[in-house]
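Narrative of accomplishments. A recurring question from our advisory board has been how the design workflow behaves on a single, concrete structure rather than in aggregate. To address it, we present the structure tokens for one chain from the evaluation set, followed by the sequence designed for it. No filtering or post-editing was applied between the two.
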């Protein structure tokens, strides 16, 4: 990938798109997950363009899911998307462990707030105080998902010591609270500046949004409302369908 290439701007295709196409072919042929591409300055020199043009080409590769910027500097080749199962008992940690994928998570933000009216309404409860938390999940040290969590005050004491890992396992172990997913809504959106910052992606890159309400298995009350934003290039959602409707039709 070090040989120099002479490119010419044409009316049909801008220079940065020509560079993106060449790099796409080279990455698919020569690179594997975790490889670092040459520095932006080296690649700009190779293609005879300025760094602004080169960055636009890298942005195209990032949106296509081929690479990501690590801590805003190194450019890393991505792996193939991870299959993520969605069903009533789903947990990110269990999914990753089943797939044999190295994962981790960290708390980016934690505060105690007055419950927003729209959150109380969505959860179907009259709630005064809540815990607001933002977490970032990593797959093979690459940020793959950023989540916001609104949790009822019964979780407050336990969450003061939470530093990462499986949130639902932690709640069960620390205060005996067992949760199940009660509802789930999946949509597609483009990253805004905040999501792009946490996920190390360009603004406008595609992402999968999963909105969930999780319930206390013992009482049936809503305990958590969450929104998880997954990088569209790293995660492929598989939704497990219940067969209850089919059984009802047969009976």
């Amino acid at each position: 990938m070090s040989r120099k290439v002479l490119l010419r701007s044409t009316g049909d295709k801008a220079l940065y798109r020509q560079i993106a196409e060449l790099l796409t072919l080279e990455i698919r042929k020569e690179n594997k997950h975790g490889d670092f591409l040459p520095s932006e300055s080296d690649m700009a020199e190779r293609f005879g363009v300025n760094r602004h043009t080169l960055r636009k080409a890298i942005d195209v590769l990032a949106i296509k899911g081929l690479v990501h910027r690590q801590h805003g500097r190194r450019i890393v080749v991505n792996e193939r998307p991870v299959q993520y199962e969605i069903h009533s008992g789903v947990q990110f940690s269990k999914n990753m462990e089943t797939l044999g994928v190295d994962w981790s998570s960290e708390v980016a933000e934690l505060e105690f707030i007055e419950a927003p009216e729209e959150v109380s309404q969505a959860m179907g409860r009259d709630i005064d105080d809540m815990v607001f938390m933002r977490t970032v999940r990593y797959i093979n040290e690459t940020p793959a998902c950023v989540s916001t969590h609104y949790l009822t005050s019964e979780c407050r004491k336990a969450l003061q010591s939470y530093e990462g890992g499986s949130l639902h396992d932690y709640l069960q172990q620390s205060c005996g609270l067992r949760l199940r997913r009660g509802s789930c809504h999946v949509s597609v959106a483009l990253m805004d500046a905040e999501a792009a910052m946490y996920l190390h992606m360009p603004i406008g890159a595609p992402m999968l949004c999963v909105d969930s309400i999780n319930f206390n298995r013992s009482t049936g009350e809503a305990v958590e409302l969450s929104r998880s934003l997954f990088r569209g290039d790293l995660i492929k959602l598989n939704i497990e369908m219940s067969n209850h409707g089919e059984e009802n039709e047969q009976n």
